[in-house]
Input
Amino acid sequence: MRLAFLGSPDFAVPVLDDLLDAGHDVEIVVTRPDRPRGRGRVLTPTPVSAAAVSRGLEVATDLDALATSDVELGVVVAYGELVPPRILERAPLLNVHFSLLPRWRGAAPVERAILEGDERTGVSIMALEASLDTGPLYATAETAVDDKSLGELRAELVALGSGLLVGLLAGGLASLPVPVPQQGEPTYARKVTDAECELDFTRAATELARVVRLGRARTFVGERRLGILEAIALEGAFGEPGSFANGVVACGTGGLALRTVVPEGRRAMTPEAWARGLRQGAPSRLGRVTDP
Output
């Protein structure tokens, strides 16, 4: 099929690759504009843009480029912007969305499934509409969330979604099934803020372990930041929330056993290695210092 591909982040790249490997003709790739990144604030293309250029594909950063393209169908994977009606009128678009719609419409469905403790999540292939993730569904697949990290769960969902998509398109546009409307009460997956990633040890350890699985969790030792890459929730009583002993931080309920930390300005290491590098040994308390 003659396709347009709309996507931006790294986890959209495998879907683009699978479509090309399946023999589809991706005539144009639309992605978000280059952004300044790193300490030097160098303009950097999106991962999808870089992958498309490496495969010799035409790349655009303006949706209006689709108006003159000769495509049968568009595929959207985390493009990062709502597609206006004038583009939807040009050709049908299918969206690969990483949740079991209508649960977790929006920008951060995998993150929200983890934070809310969902037992199962999945991927939905839907007809794109101008409104946010409201379109009818062509296919879905689900999987257990378990204790997977964000990276692990997202990679699994990308593989599931890519397989569904390639299967749906194997027979061409005429072979697509009639999509069915979404059923159930919608929930919305807003982006995860930096504030949500700062660990509040008055909360339950099970909740904080979910935050850690996103890969952005942090706390403070005095005024210095400490990233938490891996941790395990423990049952039991460990003292006042925030108190720290033997690698475990006491929480409102249970304790958070640290496994991998990133001290400010340093590499990832075990809590034991971090404590050995401190002049006064391991601190007795973790958490932001606040005025009484």
